[in-house]
Amino acid sequence: MGFFASKKGIVLVGAVIGLIAAFLQFMGNPPNMGVCVACFERDIAGALGFHRAAVVQYLRPEIMGFVLGSMVAALMAKEFSPRGGSAPTIRFFLGMFAMIGALVFLGCPWRTLLRLAGGDGNAIFGFLGLVVGTMIGGQFIKNGFSLGRAHKGHKASGWVFPAFMFALLLLAIFTPKFGANAIFESVKGPGAMHAPMWLSIGAGLLIGGLAQRSRFCTMGAIRDVFVARDFHLISGVVSLLIFAFIANFALGQFNPGFDGQPIAHTNSLWNFLGMILAGAAFVMAGGCPGRQLILAGEGDSDAAVFVMGMIMGAGVAHNFMLASSPKGITPYAPYAVVIGLVFVLAIGFAMRTKFKFD
């Protein structure tokens, strides 16, 4: 890993992600959503017709770039390692509930930081939820929680998900017509807001490569602080927040307050609870949604299953009216969050090897 394994390296990676995210917003991506893995996977789900929320449908090339950039970096470093087979069904449902929690809040851990860097006070409650969710997941890990060991797989198994992402990227670039109901694209709303295609692809590839070399992970950073008192990864997260704030301020994108924030709502309780669910699911699955994409690019099919669970969760969230909007949460969202929390807690207790909490 060389330089990127150092403190300076992880700080640099965080700074680059923060600056790129703010610049992508300036160039057309939705406000406070320069890079949001959950939101972008939700848009991809819509583009593929998994949900019919017309304002959030777009094949976001940044997501494909993360996976392919990670794959290239892993191949160059001889770290591409097909593996998997560790509780795939549970990982799928953890991904699904993580997405539901994120869409109740309206953002992944990366967007939580970007919303803070843009002045959105509502993200404070989302971040606190992530911390509590991480503590819950971290406590289970300290008590022996594990989804089992991944096993070395056939080389072909590691190529399937990157190949799928490459196919989606080709669809995004060439926009072939398969009829009226194949690939959907928003004409208004967040799905219609995007930076130029090649800029998005380049940004995704760069972030994917850097994140693979540095092991950048927001949830892993918070987990390491509480579980191992390790502050290496958190320095990169803090760097992301600081440099995104600097860039937003310089570009006139910093708007402090709670009311009227872009693609956000002010229900503090469910911002908090939604991200507790998401945070716990991310930690128990082994990383934030960005990290899961990076791992999938390295050949980890378990991470790929989690990502597919998130994409399916986006479809479920919108089809069953669970996803929030700037107007607030839906009447059904609290039930979904509670069900998700019950699932996470049940899995956490059932799959631990110790029976005393510190």
Automatic annotation (TrEMBL):
Keywords: Membrane, Transmembrane, Transmembrane helix
Alphabetical list of Pfam families matching this protein: Sulf_transp
Stretches that traverse the bilayer: 9-27, 63-80, 92-112, 124-145, 157-175, 195-211, 231-250, 270-290, 302-320, 332-351
Top-level division of the source organism's lineage: Bacteria
InterPro entries: Seleno_YedE (IPR026366), Sulf_transp_TsuA/YedE (IPR007272)
Protein name, as recorded: YedE-related selenium metabolism membrane protein
Lineage of origin: Bacteria, Pseudomonadati, Pseudomonadota, Gammaproteobacteria, Alteromonadales
